[in-house]
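Technical note accompanying the year-one report. For the benefit of new consortium partners, we illustrate the data format agreed upon in the data management plan: each record pairs a sequence with a structure-token string. No post-processing was applied to the example shown here.
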Amino acid sequence: MSTTRRRLLQGGAALGVAAAIPVGQHVAWGGKDFARADYNPDYPAPPEGEESWMNWSGIQRATPRTIAAPETEEALIDLISSTQSSLRPKGSGHSFTGLVPSEDTIVDLANLSGLKAIDSETGLARFGAGTVLFQAAGALDDHGRAFPNLPDIADQTLAGSCSTATHGTGARLPAMHAQIEAFRLVTASGEVRNVSAASDGDLFAAGKVSLGALGIITEYTLATVPAYNLHRLVAAEPLQQVFDSAEARADENRNFEAYYLPGTGVAATITHNIHDGEITGRPPSEDDELLLGLKDLRDSFGWWPWLRRKIAGAALPGGTVEDVSDASWRLLSTTRPIRFNEMEYHLPRAEGIAALRKVTTMMDRRKQVFFPMEIRFTAPDDAWLSPFNDGPRISIAIHAAVDEPYEYFFSEFEPVFRAHGGRPHWGKLHSLGHDELTGLYPEFESFRELRRSLDPDGRLLNPHLAELFGEAERA
């Protein structure tokens, strides 16, 4: 959404003079340090001879004995078979939960990547599980094919995206894992399983969203569609207008999502629909400039909500702010250079708007918040651990800057999400364990039993997974 940091702050200076800012409060707020005390951007220092790992935001950290990057599936089998060490696969590090950390062996699948084969008649495409989404989408485009939908962060791997039920937006479009037609799984014993609905229905239903707990997936066969272009419209609108129309617009448009800018009363809406004409391409995004402007506005005027909202109303654009067209994969998914921490819950559609009204009000009361809140829609699927397996859902994601506190996610917002029937995104921050998850997922115990049968010694467990499955972590 096009605006500049300078415009926001110039608006603040002008309105501030007109409003006769109480100097004492303004100075006191300006002296605040918003960083959390434990923030550390550096990798952890490993003991001699060991490795260092942390996730994208730095809140998950480990010093494993080794980070193994097998060149081939055969090398992975040798690694698993030649040692009794605990193993955790890693993707691109975009999960905020503790799915990866291990003090033993972390397995990097980056070498098991790329498009392996594509069937020109069926459109089925076989990829290495470590393929990054933008590489996979680009390779499909070279063959005139595309994914039906994509998550909004392009830097995730296929294995990471599917294993955590990562999703895009679209009321009639399911999450990424719904495109899986088959996968290859190397179990904790080194056995290779070719899995499809026909070969093993239970393992297929469990493995589409596996959390990396059933084995290490090395390949996916995915359904694709003919390549298509999209028309993208971005608009800045009053928040209440978005609340009133969100459900209808989600049903009317192929892709619909909204971002609320806390403390401003303004939301950005984004729609994508099939486009058959000439394409314009998309100019470089100004999203990061807007985000830094919202931070500056918070830093200077967050102490006075009325003034902050007035400045935003005067400086932010209104109505349509972007009207472009391009190939689907170039518009649906992007990189995020500005880092953050995130909690996302998926709520039944019947509960979503009521929860949104509560959460946005709570956000506005938190004067320190500036990071936008994301609202998306997802269609159902049938994977055992899919958050969407019981019907369509509205997803609400809240964010905090990478160096700022986020503990209030758990104390203030998570109870609201849970009260409205929410299920957490497996890769986003949440506090749920075995007892709560068993109540949310009818097949959770079936998944747990299958996991035990494939990995009786718990080689694929770590503290986070042990908490999720109510297991004693491998010693």
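Partners are asked to follow this layout when depositing records. The chain has a mean pLDDT of 94.
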